[in-house]
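Posted in: Structural Biology > Protein-Ligand Complexes

Title: Requesting predicted complex, S-adenosylmethionine in pocket

I'd be grateful if someone could produce the 3D structure tokens for the following input. Sequence and ligand are given below.
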Amino acid sequence: MKLTNFKNALGTPYFETDSILIYNMDCKEGINAIKNSGYRIDCTITSPPYNIGKEYENKMDITEYRDWLASIVNGIYDITSDVGAFLLNVGYLEVTHRGKAVPITYLLWDHIKFYLIQEIIWNYGAGVACKRMLSPRNEKILWYVKNAHSYTFNLDEIRDPDVKYPNQKKNGKLRCNTLGKNPSDVWQIAKVTSGENRSSVERTDHPAQFPTDLIDRMVKGFTNPEDIILDPFIGSGTTAVSCMNNGRKCIGFEIREDYCDIICDRLDQAYEEKREQESILSLF
Ligand SMILES: C[S@@+](CC[C@H](N)C(=O)[O-])C[C@H]1O[C@@H](n2cnc3c(N)ncnc32)[C@H](O)[C@@H]1O
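-- Reply #1 --
Done. Output follows.
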């Protein structure tokens, strides 16, 4: 599928390259425009607002929030190809009289149409220290597909080389896969940190930036080269950076113009770094 088809449906982007289109737009509007065009995307990778009072959120009543998020997820379902996938990263929120740290996934079950393959736990080391409950150190990634029997899973692309007994043999043959082991459904990947002397190299001014390593694993494992990947809440542009580095195409929607400017700077820099790397490799 060509990206220009989507550009015809969505209009002039805020930022574009041959493989990336970024729109300063409410994702509902963008998803509707794609739906009406009849073009379909291969995969969506995203992290929506969690309705916890971040600077980019208009806090909603819990039912309103659930209905808003479910309607976006169902819109994504409608524009996903028959063998496409949806990777949804979500955390927790407080539900008055019901729970302090309720997984957002609990709200969505029964309200969306995708088939759930499994829940992946993203586990990280740093975070807030709590006194009256356990300190939260994980978020979820829901791996949804449209067709329970036909979907992309490139296990060899994401195998974990950290194998305990790599030379163990049975009947003279190596027991484990030489590419590594299945990375399991618990992924230990460091968060993007901020602060003096501890800020991650990739840190931007966006307050909720994904680590690129996390997106890289999803892009490599659940999509194929040249696939079209959508991020309807693209924030600082991490999904687009990963797509650029892994040979996928990306469409991103971001409602705030100041964040779109962060994305433009970030993608310009990522493009320069990629070109430098390619020119070094061409010397060999
Ligand atoms: C959790 S952040 C995403 C962070 C992103 N994964 C990253 O790595 O930077 C959610 C983003 O969605 C944006 N947003 C909120 N409502 C939106 C909407 N209706 N349409 C498009 N973007 C929206 C917010 O401004 C925010 O940047």
